Amino acid sequence: MAEGSLADSRTKAIFDKYHIKDDGMIARQLRDRDYYDADYIIAMDQMNVRDAKDMAPAGLENMVHGIFEATPGKENCYIVAPWITHRFQNTYDSLSEALPNWLAKLKKEIK
């Protein structure tokens, strides 16, 4: 998606189905500044993990992670972009599986 793009209509349909607000949500490209502002950069698919690591400033490549890295037994799994598969529900289901594991990991790190 180009910078400033609103959510795809198929994504919006999933948001509506699960009563998720997308007010003000836009897509944008990863920026150099993100590597300094964030503790983690998490990508859904293997190509985006690779690209994010390639563009990372020297020494910050290890902050880039795949979506399932915090999910035991699925550390090397990825979600194929739904724009390729047209399986937006599968993407939602996969994110629903992966994201709680990231939340648990982050909560542990904060303590």
Short précis:
The chain has 5 helices and 2 strands. By secondary structure, it is mostly helical. The longest helix is centred in the last third of the chain and has 23 residues, at 88-110.
Could you characterize the architecture of this molecule?
This protein has 111 residues and is mainly alpha-helical. Strands 1-2 form a two-stranded parallel sheet. It starts with 8 loop residues before the first helix and ends with a helix. The protein has a single domain, classed as Response regulator (Rossmann fold, 3-Layer(aba) Sandwich). It has helices at residues 9-17, 34-37, 46-55, 82-85, 88-110; strands at 41-43, 64-66. The longest helix has 23 residues, at 88-110.
Low-confidence stretches: none
Number of strands: 2
What is the name of the CATH superfamily?
Response regulator
Strand line-up in the sheet with most strands:
1-2
The N- to C-terminal Cα distance equals 36 Å
Shape: globular
How would you name the oligomeric state of the polypeptide chains in this document? single chain
| Class from helix and strand fractions | mainly alpha
**Would you identify the CATH architecture?**
3-Layer(aba) Sandwich
InterPro entries: LMW_PTPase (IPR050438), Ptyr_pPase (IPR023485), Ptyr_pPase_sf (IPR036196)
Enzyme class: hydrolase
Protein name: protein-tyrosine-phosphatase
EC number: 3.1.3.48
